[in-house]
Amino acid sequence: MSLRARVRLLRERLGLPAFVVAVAAVALCAVGLAMAASVGVHSERLEGIAGAQATRLILAVPIVAAAFWIRPRWVRANAYAFYALAVFGLVVVLAFGRVVNGSRRWLDLPAGLKLQPSDFAKLALALALARFLAARPRARTWGGIAAVLALTALPMLLTLGEPDLGTALVFVPVAAASLDVAGASRRRLAALALAAALVATPLAAFGLRGYQLQRIETWWRQDNLSPSEKLAEGYHLERSKIAIGTGGIFGQGLGEGPQNRNDLLPERHTDFILSVVAEELGLVGALAVLALELALPLGCLVIALRVREPFARIGIVGIAAQLGAQSVVNIGVATGTLPTTGIALPLVSYGGSSALVTLAGIALALNLAAHAEPVLSGECFEAAEEATRLHREIEPSPRRLRPRPKPPVRPAPRAGREARM
Amino acid sequence: MTRIRIAQWLRVLLAMGAVLAIRLFDLQVLSADRWEAESRELLERRYVLPFRRGAILDRLGTPIAYDVDSYAIDLDGTAFRRGHPLALAARIRETLERRFVPLGEVAALPPATAAIVGALTPARLAQERPATAREELRLDVSRLLGLSPADVRRLRDAVRARDVRPVGAIFPEAAARVAVTIATAVADLAAIDAGIGERAGWCLSELDVRRARAQLQIEDGVTKDVKDGRIAPEDVAAERARRRRRREGWLERLRVGAPYAVAERIARYPRRYAGLVPLEMYARKYAIDRLPGIVGFVSRPTDDDLRRTQELRDRLDDLLRSLERGDDEEREIESIRRRLREESYLPGEVRGASGIEARFEDELRGTRGWKVVARDPAGEADIEESREPIGGHDVMLTIDASLQMAVEQVLKTGVPGWRSPQLRGAIVVMDLRTGDILAMATAPDFERAAWETPEGRKELLALDGSQSLEHPLHHRAYRPYVPPAPGSVFKVVTALAGLEKGVITPESTWNCTGPLGRVKCEGHGTVDLRKALEVSCNAYFGWVGEKVGLAPLAAEAHRFGFGERTGLGFREVVGEIPMSRRDADSVRRFGIGENQLRVTPVQVARAYAAVANGGWLPKARIVRAVGGKELPLEPPVDLRLSPYDLQAVRDGLARVVSGPGGTARTAFAGSTPDLAGKTGTPEADPKRDINHAWFAGYAPRDAPRVAFAVYVERVHGEHGGDIAAPIVKALLARDEMRPYLARP
Predict the structure, then answer these.
(1) Which is deepest, A218, A231, B162, B476, by most CB within 10 Å?
(2) CA dihedral in degrees (B356, B357, B358, B362; nearest 10)?
(3) Hey, which residues 299-328 in chain B have their CB within 8 Å of chain A?
(4) In B482-596, which residue ranges form alpha helices assigned H by DSSP?
């Protein structure tokens, strides 16, 4: 199928949401380049990053195009392979990765390329979970949930081992959203969440590194830090808030932010790029970036609403969860709403792996959606879902208006609420 | 149902977005002022401008202690790291060799480093990971080679192209210069060392220490240096904070007390001395070295002082940042500001530790100034706001510096034919109308410099102990280690007590036939008051003392200022007046200035000033004016002595030096002495025939202007007339004395 045909298909089947997602992605890439240029203007160390980022985006184009073109069936068939590859990458990075700032996150490839396998693992997990949960009504059984947890835990623990708490935490919403949308019982999910909290609290107390606990503690009393704490534990938090607060409504102008110019904001080209946006483009710019960032997952979710093919739907929701979690956590950290942890702002932060995976994920989501059959309204959606019986996890909706036609072929009732009815 | 769930996720996401939007609004609009204030603080660099400490002047305005310009050298870590050839060379080698390379190692063999840099290939540079490290290494190499912008671009392209030619081949001229550049930098640092008067290499090792600390690779709480034992784990946070401060351009003090030449050199060649910043300061100088006992010392603030200052600053910082401040907090802020201004000390400042320096600390110290400079990446600093420092007030002493030197010389030279190489004692010269101390010398004293070295200080403290007789740290004029008895110089007081009480008249006679009880005398025959003073007849004054009685005599001694503070304002010894022993012999011995009577030379001079002054006892004073304002003169106390009695005593005192039987006659033989006075020879150690020698009096004889007291401690066998009187003669013969003896 040609690109034009595919775009037409998208426009016909998904309409505005797909358009919004695509435009937001391009706009965010542009903002990212502008910010990279702004950061590089006054720093010898960072002066070339805008060019480097542009190069990476251009290099990413074929892969993103491939993600857009690929047959969804092929994606589905190879979802586990991707997953295995990502896990392999995480193992390799733990074994051979280069230590930067005390973590092994980067894998050096020949020709000066480097990758962050945990970025790929997020996308691979979303696809693997989609495939797993789409095949049979696995989300309904404890066994299925356990399998999902295991699938999630493997890359998550490997990422935690790097250590990279921020990225590891993104796996959680991906799994949760996938399970939920796949129809897992909310009660079970709530029980799981409770159990996770009960297990995680002591684990966190002992397992989190000293600095991680310290960061949470510092974050908790962020308004009462001593001058020396502001230079030690509360450094990133304080500086980020100063930069954001200095921006005011309209900002200081691109490349004119005093914190940016004077190299007073750490990690400002990666995890704290939003602070530079807020400082230089003001509340207006920051809200615009926030809106664009949220437009990605929101658009994906709206698209998912119209998709009924379960692999596509769950996959798109997983990708949306990943995008949403990253944006919310990044902006939350920059504004001091959440404890400090390092996580990139999709498409705006400087970094090739992250941008590549984000763009590929979006392309894949649009691809999956374009191939799935269109659904026009809620009722039709429900009816069509049952009529096709491609899967059997649909439970009778209490709000169903029309009597449900008896399926022509029905296997023996399975355990669960369906059977009880 | 899944649709509903997806829709719920949508709403959750929207809600989170709303929370973040509200938070952004809060930070950027509602609390923007606070963040702007914090930002301004980060963007400013505050400098403290040192104040000039007030000078200590003599009565004519000659400076005795004063501040001279001095310089501190601060280290700007970032600039040093990025600009100094040695730092660049060391950093390049560190990256290549993956170890800490001390500056000394680079400095020892510049050609070796030059060879390493020259052999470096762009391909090797390109291997460096991560990209930031590669960039820094490339920048370091460009800077060390001193490449032009065009060459910098060439190097960058070569790195991209992974050129395998060594840098030395690509930029032959620049690479050849490296060894010279490093050698020059080492010579420059050695020149600084020489200027400061340090052993060569001090700067280098000091810079190394600071740089090693800056080098700390703090990686998420686990530092290489913790592993290497270079830094304790508990110091990591502090070190990280320090490192960030340094990175952001805070300055670290490298050295205080650098001379002008060094500061000027650094300022003249900013590129060669990249990272070294000279700052103006002051250093205390003493023009007259031998006044430590009066002028006193300044000392560096102690660690406690500095810690207190830091605590005050931190507290102020916290208070200023707390958003809700009540009246209590405002008051506390005011009080802390005042204390910081008036009581706190910063490194490089001094505080008065003793003498005038300590007593007038509040007046002498000034107020610091400050300036706020906007930080700018281009390095151009604009002064935004400043306050000039206010110098301290000058303190003008009553001492005449030239007379003081003359007096010290006289005391040091001693008496011709005196056996001991150096005598111990004191001289006080006082303006008898105002009580101004014109000169006040003690011997032995000590060199100021000796006290300032640890060994010298130890030696002085040993000399000052109870095992020693030297006691150089005790100014014998007002604070003798063992206050002496006045001996016969006290007879003036006994005489005036007897005259006042009416137990004698000037014409009363006493037949001296030798010792009276335990009071020794030689048998002067019939003596009246004048004669008794002239020959210093012990029996006569023993008799008078006995007739006056213990309590009235003690009261009279108090009236003349014995056993009292003289008004100098130092930690004086007040001496002792006998009150307990009431038996006849003891009272007689009190009458001749023995018994338990203990006095200081300043007290004696003051008493003689009263005699010369018609019975008006002046308060002694040593400070005449503060900050150009004359201190009000404390009025002398009228002792209500009858002029007739006084005249008799003064006649007697005149006859001491000129009368045929005068005890000081021999000392002044062959001249026409224009003074009056009294010798004294109290027993110090009767068994070994050791006495103190005194001579107290005033001059000129008929129109007195100055009173003086000369005290010589522990002389063997000699009398006041043999030792103290010749000193007075030498003193009065000095040219420096002449202005004070001129008749009005």
Answers:
(1) B476
(2) 110
(3) 314, 317-318
(4) 491-501, 529-535, 538-548, 550-559, 584-591
